[in-house]
Amino acid sequence: MPTTEPTVQEDSGVARRVAVSTAAQGPTRVLQVVLNAWMTFVILDTFGEARFGDYVLVLTVVTLVGLAVDSGLGQIAVREVSRGEDEDATLGTVVGMKLVYAAVGTVMIQLVLTAFDATAELRLAGLFGAGIYVADALLVTTATFQSRLQQQYDALVRIVNVVAKTVTVMMLVTLGATLVPVIAAQMMIPIVGGLLSVGLVHQRFGVQLRFDGSRVRWLFGQSWYMGLSAFIALAWLRMDLIMIELLTDDRTELGVYGAAQQPLEYLVIAGSIITTLSLPLMSRYFGKDPEKYLTTHRRTLEVGLGVYGLIVVMAFVIGEDALAIPSDGEFVAAYDPLRLLALSMLAMGTAVWHAAVLLSARLQRITIFVNFGSIALGIALNLLLIPRYGITGAAAATLLTATAAAIVSGIIAYRMTGVYPD
Q: How far lies 300's CA from each of 174, 230, 422, in Å?
């Protein structure tokens, strides 16, 4: 079908929506970081090293299993809706598929925790943790906001989620709650935000979710590469935690390392606003407007490096003092890993954006090979460095692996799509 050059009016409309979306998402992501960091420090102070290690183990298993059963369907939904596919059928089918995957993931969590010889309490926490999969399924509907560049609605959903979750967790900790209620609150409350999103897309944009069985095979074929790639990517990002658990058999060490990783993870999630805003534009411009495609890539990469660079500065300037606050300084030993992990954020953010570039061009299958290489390198480096340098060695392995992934993925993105930095 022939395409026409966008008019100045259309371009200004896109620019205006991007500006509004950014204005809404920016403060929202800052609020998320502040509340999540506060919540993490309160949990650190309450649980202590060993108990926080149990908490990190459950969250790691829930996250990894979630990616194993997710299949990247959320990103596929954003891409296809941005390209003008039937929105009702695409979103309805993806939500239905993810709810089925959520049931599978619930069983897998129990199997993995049992393999780690987890206590009955940790397995119960994992059962409640699976609630996040239901929330993720419902939150697929935020693809409507992203594709229309109306992310002020997405911001509203995020604010409801993070405020409700933080308030509930703080109340539970104040009342002396144990691990299970705290994880249950963190993982189950986002379902409220998911339901809010479903209501908003229907009321504001007339979306009526409709399951279309004829789309399942195609969606699965498009997404399983993304899902496997994302699982492998997070596996090497979380490889340090897994290897510390396996090689040290010391939940206290895991707790100290988690104290360094958790705050940075929230900052990285906040920084993902850049990819969230740019992916629909990249999908729209690919193959139609090469100049805008390249320009969007360059500006996104520049902003991303600036955001993650700020994370590095914050980690070096206030990291040690921040870690001295909870539990009377028990977690100060996490400062050296914190600095290395902060540096790795620059490389991770770059690699994630390169993967989004390939996704926009429907070349997501290629990413899996980069991530396979990354996980192999990560395992080798962790086996080499953790026995000698402990948790600092684990952080160094993450930094080296992320740097290699960023370089390789950048070369591939250039060769396959023609994008390159200024």
A: 41, 21, 12
Question: Residues 34-74: pLDDT tens digits?
Answer: 777 778 778 877 777 667 888 888 988 898 788 777 667 87
Query: How far is residue 258 CA from its own chain's centroid?
Result: 16
Whose structure tokens read 């920084």?
271
Place of tokens 């390392």: 257
CB neighbours of 290 closer than 8 A, spacing ≥ 6?
418
| Tokens linked to 95 | 């939500």
**Rg for the chain (alpha carbons), in Å?**
21
Decide: 193 and 135 in contact? Cβ < 8 Å.
yes
Measuring CA to CA, which residue among 110, 99, 107, 258 is closest to residue 191? Answer: 99
Both tokens assigned to 256: 């100290």
| 325: phi then psi, degrees, rounded to nearest 5 | -70, -55
What average pLDDT score do residues 195-201 get?
Answer: 93
Find, among 323, 341, 200, the residue nearest to 267 by Cα: 341
CA angle 267, 375, 366 (to 5 degrees): 90
Distance CA 163, CA 59 (A): 20
pTM, two decimals, is: 0.65
The single-letter DSSP state of residue 4 is -
Give a three-class secondary structure readout of 289-306: CHHHHHHHHHHHHHHHHH
d(CA 45, CA 269): 23
Dist. CA 163–CA 36, nearest whole Å:
9
pLDDT tens-place string over residues 101-157:
899 999 999 999 998 888 999 999 999 999 999 999 999 898 888 777 677 888 888
Number of H helices and E strands in the chain, helices first, is 16, 0
**DSSP helix/strand/coil, 311:** helix
> Do 232 and 374 meet the contact criterion of CB atoms below 8 Å apart?
yes
What single-letter DSSP state applies at residue 333?
G
Contact criterion met (CB below 8 Å) for 280 and 84: no
